[in-house]
Design a protein that fits this description.
With 179 residues, this protein is mainly beta. 11% of the residues lie in helices and 45% in strands. Strands 1-2-3-4-5-6-7-8-9-10-11-12-13 form a 13-stranded antiparallel beta sheet, with helices on one face.
């Protein structure tokens, strides 16, 4: 549920930024980096901060951006870009000031996600993607810092589940899901 809320807020903020970009004032930092900021709700705190590489004026490229989605003065999503495409991002899903989710991209396509859902600063869910589709989920159900529950997907459908009871990295029980 927090992810859904974040996504909705993100869409709203991104729309807001896109609509106001033309009016945003850019601060020239270097030939490679011009930083823009926006205070969407006019409370004096920046909600949207981003840098662009304007060395090719016809093809400006975003280098990084940060968004405060709930307007509390803390950035909830921080993104980095390579050659204008997103390369990684971290998100604070519950707005407590601690990042809980991390996404990694190759060539703008999501390849890996990590979430700390039950404890702060402790990853307990790893998701792997191929061609943007989930292929594997690894879950730490015991809070040991290592996954013990594995889900394998075929064509985005859960195909089989594996459980590693003693955390030696070898799956001890398999369950087939798709026939
Ligand atoms: Ca603000
Ligand atoms: Ca915030
Ligand atoms: Ca958080």
């Amino acid at each position: 549920m927090p992810i859904l809320i974040l996504n909705i807020l993100l869409v709203l903020v991104l729309c807001g930024c896109a609509a106001k970009v033309k009016n945003g004032t850019g601060t020239f930092k270097s030939e490679k980096e011009t930083v823009y900021n926006l205070d969407i709700n006019n409370d004096g705190k920046v909600d949207c901060l981003w840098a662009q590489d304007l060395s090719d004026p016809k093809n400006p490229k975003t280098i990084w951006r940060k968004d405060d989605l709930n307007f509390d003065g803390k950035f909830d999503i921080e993104q980095n870009f390579k050659f204008g495409k997103i390369s990684d991002e971290k998100m604070d899903l519950d707005f407590d000031g601690i990042f809980d989710a991390y996404n990694q991209y190759i060539d703008g396509v999501l390849v890996k996600s990590e979430y700390a859902l039950t404890a702060k600063n402790k990853t307990d869910l790893w998701i792997y993607y191929k061609d943007g589709k989930v292929i594997k989920k690894e879950i730490d159900t015991k809070g040991k810092g290592k996954p013990d529950y594995f889900e394998f997907y075929e064509n985005s459908k859960l195909d089989r589940i594996g459980i590693d009871y003693d955390l030696d990295g070898i799956i001890d029980r398999w369950e087939k899901k798709n026939d």
